[in-house]
Amino acid sequence: MKVLVIGVAGKIGQRVAIGLAEHGHQVLGIDRRPWPDAPASIAVSECDIRKRAAEDVFRTEQPEAVVHMATVTHLTAASSEDRYRINLGGTKSVFDFCHRYGVQRAIFLGRHTYYGAAPDSVLYHTEDEPPLALETFPELADLVAADLFAGTALWRYPEIDTAVLRVVYTLGPSRSGTLASFLRGPRVPMVFGYDPLFQFMHEDDVAAAIIAALESKLRGVYNVAGPPPLPLSLVAREAGHRALHVPEALFRLMLGRFGLPRLPPGALAHVKYPVVIDGSAFKRKTGFSHRHDEYRTIEAFARAPR
Amino acid sequence: MRFVLPEVEQRLARLEIPFNRDGIDPFGLSRDHLAKFLSMLTFFYRHYFRCTARGVENVPVRGRAMLVGNHSGGYAIDAGMLIASAFLELEPPRLAQGMVEKFLSRMPLAGTWLQRTGQFTGLPEHCTRLLEEERLLMVFPEGARGTAKLFVERYSLVRFGTGFMRLALATSTPIVPFAFLGGGEAVPTVVNLERVGKMVGLPYVPVTPYGLAVPLPVHVELHFGEPMQFRGTGNEDDVEILHKVDDVKRKISTLIDRGLRRYAPT
Q1: CA angle at residue B25 from B24 to B27, to 5 degrees?
Q2: Is A57 buried (19+), middle (13-18) or exposed (0-12) by CB count in 10 A?
Q3: B128 lies within 8 A of chain A by CB
Q4: Tens of pLDDT along B185-210?
Q5: Is CATH 3.10.450 what the domain over B6-260 is classified as, yes or no?
Q6: The complex's ipTM?
Q7: Cα A44 to the center of its chain, rounded Å
Q8: What is the CATH number of the domain that holds A52?
Q9: How distant is the Cα of B10 from the closest Cα of chain A, in angstroms?
Q10: Which residues, listed in sequence order, are joined to residue B252 by a DSSP beta bridge?
Q11: CB nearest A122 (choices: B22, B108, B123)
């Protein structure tokens, strides 16, 4: 199958592209960022998905399948205008091109934080639940909108097998991603009196899950999870860091200072309450199972060169 | 480990909960937190309230079940004793899991402790999931209306919610009715201060003749009735559901009355 990976230069994007090539697929990639040491078999176009050059790739290459993972968080794009442009504008372009150039399968990579963190949120969210607590975390709104918009492709372009994947935090040797940047410093800040469950999976398992979704012609919205979640204090300890328990009032003031990670105010709920999803439907449909348990995943992250 | 009774430690090892190598289960239950929590409850169960449990054989030792009973006492003494009885009296021991008011899940420390000891926020999704995992659920259908009973009302039953019955039907879960006696004597509430409660983030603050709602060391009792199995889908109309709820309520009322004939708080 000819597969186009959008956001191919990202850490997960690279793994997906290499994995697909190993499975015998012909792989193309698009990214605004360069991927200097890309394997020769993977043709990478350095362009923006919303621009003409990207549409040219669709027109000339006619890919059969597309994996769209070029969304950004508040960590990489600070202004909300940028995030809306990239996450929503980009997603719209991808699905329009897919429709226009006869793509048969499309995968949108979303995030489990879609469900939101709140004191009354359910443990093990299922796919039929709406997002929660958006009003307290506006930095998440554009990603939630992109997730829901990608889902509309299922009825707007019924000829495409679209799968929206809501994936837990990723962790692993690349030391990149939302959870990795939170755990990067020597001290992990925690809100005093709270120790939420954190759900994550190894980046190789995430890539394997995406490939499994593509190869099984998955259609619909699915949560993707691996090993069971662990309390944040235990994740910090296993990663060799010290948890720093700070009263909530001080917590806001200290972020971004004293070597602590920077977080938008809305992210506070995600450090107080859990977001835990039920990934069983995805496993049933695709036969996917994770290879790295929670401890090996943390170890892979902690042992990687910084 | 301090504050952990050897008996609790031994029984904890026999709980059928899938703990990982650090003693954490997939719902975030923690063996260490449970050891301390259950040791504290055991002290109150055995020595402070000298709780007796009759009809424990009615509680299934395996598989899904709902313990449904009356609230008594200004706060969750009843739930604490119920957890202790399921843990100490059943062979093998079981962990009874309750559905907690949202204001508690929001509180620092309390929220985390409740989560670690299996007492989740009261959401129907949590009930269904726990029952499907064949766990033992505690339900007080009177809700916060029930803990707010005054001393004089202590053995009355206020309005029952119906959600538990729909869930029991949808998941074909047997209901084990129970009566809790002595909660009203332990915390003899004369008035509930709602405005003061609101200021500190609680629904109300119970006040006793001696001021603070510290429980008195009275004798308390649990009486379990035979399991009730209802048939249905959970989508029945309200009238039908209310009939079934009334059956349970009547059964609990009978257990209370029968228990009271011989009950003395000393």
Answers
A1: 120
A2: buried
A3: no
A4: 888 888 888 898 888 888 888 888 88
A5: no
A6: 0.89
A7: 21
A8: 3.40.50.720
A9: 24
A10: none
A11: B123
